[in-house]
């Protein structure tokens, strides 16, 4: 009976080794599948990025012209406004200086209203 038991034990050990080998192969297969999935996902992400970047560059190119046109229009408008302001300044500066001088040199000596009330 001991030969039969030792052969049974030997069979169990061999079955256990075979099962461990199968489990190890399954783990390796799972790890490989995960690596493949990550690689494929990275490729898809990169393709999506390139597509979106291309769309953005097209959008940017189509709107860049309108931006420079807007800048040109704003610059022209600013120049016109500056000319108007400069002309207005040149026309009225002498008159303003004269009015200021007239007010500054026109002195009426009189008591402050609070002082007048106190004296009354």
From TrEMBL:
MF annotations from Gene Ontology: ATP hydrolysis activity; proton-transporting ATPase activity, rotational mechanism
One Pfam match: V-ATPase_G
Cellular component GO terms, alphabetical: vacuolar proton-transporting V-type ATPase, V1 domain
Residues in coiled coil: 12-54
Cited Gene3D superfamilies: 1.20.5.2950
NCBIfam families (alphabetical): V_ATP_synt_G
Role summary: Subunit of the V1 complex of vacuolar(H+)-ATPase (V-ATPase), a multisubunit enzyme composed of a peripheral complex (V1) that hydrolyzes ATP and a membrane integral complex (V0) that translocates protons. V-ATPase is responsible for acidifying and maintaining the pH of intracellular compartments and in some cell types, is targeted to the plasma membrane, where it is responsible for acidifying the extracellular environment.
Quaternary structure, from the entry: V-ATPase is a heteromultimeric enzyme made up of two complexes: the ATP-hydrolytic V1 complex and the proton translocation V0 complex.
Membership in a protein family: Belongs to the V-ATPase G subunit family.
Descriptive protein name: V-type proton ATPase subunit G
Organism: Collybiopsis confluens
């Amino acid at each position: 009976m001991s030969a039969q038991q030792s052969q049974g034990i030997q069979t169990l050990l061999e079955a256990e080794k075979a099962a461990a080998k199968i489990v190890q192969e399954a783990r390796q297969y799972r790890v490989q599948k995960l690596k493949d999935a990550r690689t494929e996902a990275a490729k898809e992400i990169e393709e999506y990025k390139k597509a979106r970047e291309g769309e953005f560059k097209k959008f940017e190119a189509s709107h860049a012209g309108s931006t420079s046109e807007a800048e040109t229009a704003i610059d022209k408008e600013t120049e016109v406004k500056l000319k108007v302001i400069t002309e207005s300044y040149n026309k009225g500066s002498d008159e303003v200086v004269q009015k200021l001088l007239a007010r500054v040199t026109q002195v009426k000596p009189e008591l402050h209203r609070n002082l007048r009330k106190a004296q009354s």
